Each structure stands twice: as structure tokens, then as C-alpha cells.
Amino acid sequence: MHSDHLRLDGVSRSYGERRVLSDVGFSVGRGQRVGLIGENGAGKSTLLRIIAGVEAPDHGVITRPLRTGILWQEVPFRPSDTVEDVFEDALAEVRAIERELDDAASALAHDPESPAAPERYAAALAAAERADIWGADARRDVLRDGLGVSALQLDRRLDEVSGGQRSRVALAALLLRRPDALLLDEPTNHLDDSAAEFLERQLRDWAGPVLFASHDRAFLDAVATGLVDLDAARAPHADSHASTASVTVFGGRFSEYLEHKASERDRWERQYADEQEELGRLRHAVAVTTRSVAHGRGPRDNDKFIHGFKGARNDQAIARRVHNAEGRLSVLEREQVRKPPAPLAFAGIPRGSQALGDESGLLVQAAGLAVAGRLAPLDLRVEPQTRLLVTGANGAGKSTLLALLAGRIGAGDGVLQRRRGLRVGLLEQDVRFPDAALPARAVYESVLGERRAEQVPLSGLGLIAPRDENRPVGALSVGQQRRLALALVIAKPPHLFLLDEPTNHLSLGLATDLEEALGTYPGAVVIASHDRWLRLRWTAAELHLHPVTDAALAPVAG
């Protein structure tokens, strides 16, 4: 069904025995911008695919505008496609209107007496004006510049640019298409500050409904006019064995919702504790108290009659008390709230990293380290307890620097020295597992080895829900796959831990837990990030990179 708004009624979706969405319903009107939040695997991407019409729900009705556009976490183009191919695909409707206007003008010029020719030309001209075909290329260039991809030549192949650049090209193309409704899946994952602020302005001015899934708290606060929380932990009366998304709609800012959610969790925990205390009292009353007789002695010969009379009345009172207690117990056992589940949170980095012998000295030292066209020359020292945040605009070389430190690529220029025996772990932005059919637990055991996996079980890290450990990694969400990649690194902590945009695709709660845990990590930590919230809270050293075409590297701030 088509409309000028988005509306969902009773939408449910299961994969085999695993229920992802259950009876989801909400609406997004014109000019509204609703943030879709929830834990990794709660069904956010699934819901966006269903709304877009790419995937069908098991049950439910969806109403959406005819021209509804969606931004995928993974860019849906071939590696051999060029940047221009992506933009021309977005402008396909505009180009068709251009061709029709040209054809209509030609028909009118060749046969001006035809009664149909003027009408055709007038209709084509009106369509061209509505689509603003004359400003299409200018809009494309504004979007390219605003999202930080104007330096990419239009003939560049997609497999020749970074994953972040591909995502920004796809976002620019979607905005260029100007659909009536927007569906965005983690739109700020690869945006620097200026690009994120540019996108915020674009969305605040968007006329149609906007629904976006995001873990970016600053972006949610700046853009969302309301929130929809897909969090299975928010269903107090739900079957504890069901993985069911319970929708909570909140018409306020994200920072306000965090306070609301914390208060609600406190109420839930207090209600659960009170009900468990009452259940214990009732069970004791039914089993013991209500069946006890107040008088523990037998009757004397001269009052057997009165004792029998009072005993009968006492038995009746006890029966009523038992009956009432049993009734209250039955109702409470049936209607009690379920136990608030422990949030799926980062359990802390396990200790036991192999020592290098001397806890002092340098792990890595670089002088004049550079890669032509990707990283400007820099000097760097990494000590055993270094905490370093690497920042800079897209294309400044943050991922390149981490790849150099990890030994994934060779240094083009300069000197890079690593300490003997140094073990380096890298959490990359784009996670890929060679065998997508392997269960998450099997991947974990194959990478770590059976002994280490037994010493540090996957279930103990709090990163993958027990119900998901035996699912194929290819069936996990992007966020869940990144959680697994994180588990593979921290289960055997390296001496130098490198994290490339660590909060991308991670839930807000887990991202906060990870940042706090890194403060006590038993080795050195180097983080490359655009995350505005993380950067505002960072108190250790920072290294700001400038693009290769800019001035030399800015100094390190301690």
C-alpha cells in the first residue's frame, strides 16, 4: 500500500524457530525523523528491509510512499562499477525525464500542427520542472562535497576506494535520488564531523518521513524527533525463551530516553523483587503457616465439647486462608513479570597476555612513516601502556596507519620498528569470515584453538547471546559479526590492540562498556575513530592526521 507516510501494523518475522520481530506497529509521518534503536540482532536491519519491500513479513501490513529509498550497510553495487555509475543510477528517473523532454521538443518541432505534440511537451516540461533536471548535476556536486567524496574521480572503480568512501558515495546517491521516504541503516558510520553535520542539515530539511537505525548518540540527539526501541529485554511479561522484539515508541530526544529507560529498568527490577518476595510469602503460607493450628495442646476432659466446636471453626478459617492464598499465588505465578535479563554487555578483557619480558621500553617506533597518496609522513612511539586516539578527516590515513602497525601492509617510506615477539591485534571496520556457514562458536574455537576457547569461553565474554552462538556467522547481523571479531581479539589479548572505528555497528551500551574496559587493558591501545561522543570523553594522547595534500602532521597532544 502507498501513502505519504510510513505505517506498520502487526509486522512479524521469523527465521526458522527464531523470532526476530513480533507484532511491530508504529508510524512515521511527513517531516518526522524517527530513530530505530536496540541491541545488535534485535531486528533493525530486518525491519528496514521489510519496510523497503525487499523482504516480506510473515504477518502484518505495511504502508509506505511509492518512492521509498533505503541506504544499506553494504553497498549494493558491483566492484567493477564506477562512482559515476552509482550517481547515474540515482539519476535514472531524472535522465528519463530529460530524454522525454528532448523527444517531446523534437516531436513538436517536426510536427507543430499535431494536437498531441504541444500537450506532450507541456507535460514533459512540467515533469522536468518538478524534478529540477537542470540542477541535478549541481545537486550531485553539493552532495559529493558535503559528504566528503568530491575528491574521488567519477571514473574511479568502487573496488579502488575504501569501504567508508563507498558508503558515502551510496549515501550521496540516495539523497540525490530524492525519494519521498528515507530508510537509513547506520548512516553516520563512515562520516567525519563535517559530513555528519551536513547530513543532519539534509535530514532536518527533508519533507517526507525518515526512519533510520543508528548507534550514534550525538546524531540521534541532533536529528531524531522520536524513537522506536526494538529491545527484547523490554517485554516484562514475555516468554523468557522467546527472542521477541517489543516495540517502545518514545516521542522525545535520545538523551531524555536514556533517562526514561533507566527509570523504567529500576521500576521493573523493583517490581520483580517485590513480586518474588510476595511469591515466597504466599508459598510459605500455603505450605506451612495456613495449615498450622494456633493451639498446640489437646483438649482437657471438661472442655472437649467447646474445643471441638472452636476447632471446627478454626479448620474453616484455615481452609479459607489456604484457599485465598492459593488463589493469589496462582494469579501471581501466572501474571508475574519475568526476571529482568542481564544486558548483553562487554564482560571485560581477559587477562593472561603473554609477557614480553621487560614491561618498559617501546613496542613500536616509527620515523617518517608514510604511504604515497594515503598517509603523510609521521613519527610515532608506542609504549606498553600507550593510549592513543587517532583522528582526522576521511582519507587522512587512519585505517592505513593501523594497517601499517598491524603489518597488514608494508611501509612505503620511512622506518617502522616493532619489538621482537610483539603480538598485534586489529579490529577492522569491515569484518569478513572466510566460511559464512560455520557457526559462531566453531569460528571462535578454530581461531583461538580448543584450549584457549575452553579457558575463555565465548559465552563468558557477553558479546554474543547464547542463542546465537550456534548460528552460521553469515546469518548474524553486521553488528553481531563485529562482536564476534572483537571476541576473537580480546579472548587472547595482544600486546598492542588496534581498533578501527570500534563503536561502528555496536549497540550504545556495548560501545560504552568497551570504552571503559579499554582503560584497564593490559597492553597498549590505539583507536582510530570519528565517534564524537568518544572523542569528547577522551583524556589520553591524541594524534590528528591531515590528508596527504595538506600540511604536515599536527603534533601529538598529551
UniProtKB/TrEMBL annotation:
The organism of origin for this protein: Orlajensenia leifsoniae
Protein name listed in UniProt: ABC-F family ATP-binding cassette domain-containing protein
InterPro entries, sorted: AAA+_ATPase (IPR003593), ABC_transporter-like_ATP-bd (IPR003439), ABC_transporter-like_CS (IPR017871), ABCF_ATPase (IPR051309), P-loop_NTPase (IPR027417)
Residues covered by the ABC transporter domain: 6-257, 356-556
Presence of keyword Coiled coil: yes
Signal peptide range in chain numbering: none
An MF annotation (GO) of this entry: ATP binding
Coiled coil: 258-285
